[in-house]
Amino acid sequence: MSEVHILDHPLIQHKVTLIRDENTGSKEFRELVEEVAMLMAYEVTRDFPLQEVEVKTPVGLAKAKKISGRKVAIVPILRAGLGMVNGMLRLIPAAKVGHIGLYRDPETLQPVEYYCKLPTDVSERDLIVIDPMLATGGSASAAIQFLKDRGAKKIKLVCLIAAPEGIKKVQEDHADVDIYTAAVDERLNDHGYIVPGLGDAGDRLFGTK
Ligand code: PRP
Ligand code: URA
Fold this sequence. Notes:
By secondary structure, this protein is α/β, with parallel strands linked by helices. The protein contains 6 helices and 13 strands. The chain is 31% helix and 32% strand. Strands 1, 4, 5, 6, 7, 8, 9, 10 and 11 form a 9-stranded mixed β-sheet that branches. Strands 2-3 form a two-stranded antiparallel ribbon. 1-O-pyrophosphono-5-O-phosphono-alpha-D-ribofuranose (PRP) binds at residues 77-80, 103-104, 109, 111, 131-140, 166, 192, 200-202.
């Protein structure tokens, strides 16, 4: 069974509260999502292995540490996942970025794929799938399956807010994928929105509606 990591750093929690607020406009919403994604990158990379290296400082030779040859790709689920890309890249600048376009059919709530462009070597990379909302889990599960079908072996899922239903779906479908989230909310409403959640992440990021 995969693990669910609740990222309870005070800065993450504080900023997610501001993101939830219905009075937060698109500009501030975008900035906050980017900042939270950057803070989450710090937590998600916590298990990256280090190797000992020697570095010559102006004063002498230091035995120090470097991340050992890790190849990372960040994979936003379009559209709302785009809001988290730059924050992640601030801390993992060498990462490649793959894109998976999925939207949720408003009637069936099933994910519909419309775009995919991935680095050619996904099978060799640590993949970090990002999407602010994990609601029914249909989109995240489909995106992860998509990556596995192309050879991906190491995948983590990062979201801002998750519903219990979404966590259950991803854990059932992908027991090898750990989930990182700032909050697990109460439930989904009849339209598949997370309650209390933050509303429609894509619309709030991009000012559409
Ligand atoms: C939202 C969100 C997730 C999905 C979550 O995207 O960004 O991708 O819904 O719902 P699920 O867990 O039930 O699949 P949406 O389909 O609204 O598309 P958008 O990002 O283009 O706005
Ligand atoms: N997608 C969103 O943007 N918000 C939700 O609450 C659920 C799915």
